[in-house]
C-alpha cells in the first residue's frame, strides 16, 4: 500500500437543497484527483450516485460521467443541479401557484392563514415562521415569528388561538392523509402500511398544505421548465414539512425516521419562498442525458436509472471506464424512506415502484451496508479493466462505516492502494484498484498484527489519536493481510470478529493509554505509555509550516495545506484547526496570502533569542548564581548544583524541549515568545499526554524576562514571586480544536 496524501478542497459556499441528507463533501477534491488519473473527456463512472455535486464537479472538469442512480429524488436533484431552471422560471412558477384560487382566496393567502398567530408585544396578526411541538402532544407549545410592525421576534409561548387552529386542521386530517398515501401505494398494496407509517412523520397542517400544493402542481398545466422549477421548490418544502427537525437543533443530519422529542413545524409556504435561492447553481449548465443517450466529448452526465447490476453487461461492451469516483453510500433510513414517499407525491405510484423496497426496509445495520457494498463492488469488478483506479470518499466517517467499506471492497477483490484520514468530521479519502481474481489464503485477524499496526500509528503521530484513527490503522493492516473476512464468512460475523480483536488489543494489556471520561473504546483518545514518547505531529506540523512560510512569502491557505498533506500523508493528515493554530502563531494574513510576521523572520528571531539569552545570564549573575550555558539551556548554579534551568525557545515546540531537557521539571522553566503562548495552549488542550508532561514545568514569556531585567532591585524571592504570577493564558477567542 502506498501512502495517500489528502487532497484538500473547499467547503461549498451554499449547502444546496436537501443538504442535510446529501453527503457533506469539499469541492475540488475529486476534480484534482481526476486531473492526475484521467485525461479530459475520458469516461468516469460513479456507481452509487449519492452525491449530485460530486458528479457535477467531474462533468464540469470535462469528463464524461456515467452515473447509476437508483433513488428518484437524488436523480431529480442531479438533473436539476446540472441544468437548473432560470430564476425567472422559479419566480413565475411560484407566482402561478400563489395566485391560483382556493375557494374565494388566493392559494397563498389561504395557506398563510393556517399559520396566523398574534404578536405577543403589539397584538397584531403575524405569520408564524414555525410552531414548536413536543412529541405526541396534540398542540404546539410555542411559536417563532418576526413581527414586521413592532420588531418583536423569537420564540414565544403558544396562545389558545394557536392550539385551536392546530386542532381545527387536525379534525379534517383523515381525508388528506389517505390521499397522501394513495399517491404512494394503492389500497390493496401490501406496502401501504409502510407508506402510512412514513406519513406519520407529517403533522396535519403541513400535510394539508403539501397535498394541496401537490394537487396544484398537476392541475396548473405549467410550461415544462416552470413545472420543473415548481417541482424543485415543492420537493424542498416536502422535506421542510416533516417532523424531523429537532429543536433546538441537536442532530442536523437525521439518519433515522424518528420524531425528536421537541421539533419545529416549519411554515410550508415560507419554505417554498425560501426555496427560490436554494436552487440557483452558480456554475454553468452541464449536458445531462438518460442512458443510453450519448453525451459530448467535452463532458457531461449520463444517468442510468437503476442499479449497477443492470448496467454492468452493457457498459463492458461499449464504454471504456478510465476511473471510478464515488461518495460511498451509508445507510440513511430517514432519507431513503422519505425519498420513496416524495417520489410518489411528486410523480405518482409508478415512480415509486422501482424504489419501493426503501419503504419496506426498516433497519439498516453496518453488516447490511457491507453486504450491499460488496454486491456493488462485485458488479464493478466485472465491468472494469484490471488496474482501474477507484477514488472513494467516505463522508461522516464512523469506524464501522470504514470497516464496512474496506471489508466489502477487499472481498470483491479491489486492492487498497491508500487511505487518507483527516478528522472524523471530514470525508476519508480512499484509493482502490480493480485487482486480479486470485484465490487468496485468508487469514484470521490476529491480535499481534493489530497491536503492531496501532503502535506504529501512535509512534508516527507521537501524540494520542482518536479512536477512528487507531481503528483505521487496525483495519488497514487487516486489509493488507487479507484478514478482514474469510471467504465463507457472513459480513456480520466478520465484523464482530474484527471489532472484538481491536477492542481486546486496546483494552487488554496496558500497552495503550486511554484518555477518556467514557468507558467505550470509541470515546476519547488513545495513546502510548509516557515512556514511548516520540516527537508529536503537532510539533512537526509547526516546523513544516514555518519552513514553508520562510520559503514562500505569498502562500495562500490551500497551497500551504496541499504542501503539508504531502509531508503528512495517510493517517497523519493534519487538521485545519492545527494548521490555523500554527499560522496564527507565526503569520499574518494579507488579503488571501499568509506572511511570516516581521518579528518572526529568521534573522529577527535570532536577534531576539540572543538578547533574551543575554538577559537570562545577566539576571542570574545579579542574583549571585553561577550561570552556565549549555546549548539552548541556561543553568543557574550554586555550589555546583543547578537551582534554576531555562530552556529558551523561539517556537512552541514544547514537546521537543521537554524531551531534550535533562533537568528536574520542578526547576526547569520553558521560555517562549508571547506570540507562541496561544499555540502552546492549543497543543496542551488537544493532547492530554502533553498536558500531563507540561503541567510539571513552568512557562515564562520573553516579556517577563525583559521586565525582570529592568527591575532595579531584584532578589531571589521577588524573582520566584514574579515567575509564579505569570500564567500562560488559555486559548483566547474561538479556535478549532481538532
Ligand atoms: Zn408586533
What are the defining features of this structure?
binds zinc ion; eight-stranded mixed β-sheet; five-stranded antiparallel β-sheet; 738 residues; 45% helix
Overview of this protein structure:
It is a single chain. This protein is α/β, with parallel strands linked by helices. It is 45% helix and 17% strand. Helix 17 runs parallel beside helix 19. The structure holds zinc ion (ZN). Residues 119, 121-122, 124, 147, 149-150, 152 line the site of zinc ion.
Radius of gyration: 31 Å
Tally of extended strands? 26
First CA to last CA: what distance? 27 Å
Which segments are poorly predicted (pLDDT under 50) over 5 or more consecutive residues? 730-735
Fraction of residues in H or I helices: 40-55%
Describe the sheet with the most strands: 8 strands, mixed
Strand content: 15-25%
- Give the mean pLDDT: 92
Task: Give the strand order of the largest sheet, numbering strands 1, 2, ... along the chain.
Answer: 10-11-2-1-12-13-15-14
Bulk shape: globular
Q: Can you count the helices?
A: 29
What class would the helix/strand composition place it in?
A: alpha/beta
Bound molecules: zinc ion
